[in-house]
Amino acid sequence: MKIDCQIEQSALVQKAKDVCESKGTRFTTIREKVFGLLAQTESGVGAYDLLEQLKVTEPNAKPATIYRALDFLSEMGFIHKIESTNAFMLCHHFDHTHPVQLLICDNCGNVNELHSTIISHELNNQAQDLGFTVSRQTIEAHGLCQKCN
Asked: Binding-site residues for Zn(2+), please?
């Protein structure tokens, strides 16, 4: 199983590098390391937790280091910010724009990402009825995952 995770992570890193190259941006070593740290978890991770993990290989890393990397990864669509917990998670579907719904387990912290166009369309339709234009959407739902139920 660990080998499969390494293969998947390697494929995700290559996919991210390809996206960066196609957009004329650099996927620096620090950005790649932060991306890799996020790829190793199924839950959201806070910036300072990421910083501590990054310091294992980059002892001089500072908060600004992690925040610059997270800003870049977010701008590229590689990660989602979980607003309710102020954490970040890798998006495995960053090769296209999509609506995002997050199911967040309040017990174990596991996060599942959904892409319901039905929810997205309904939200957009109701917003439009109110004269509101949605530019991006992330819907967060808290509860208990199957393992914790």
From this structure: 105, 108, 145, 148
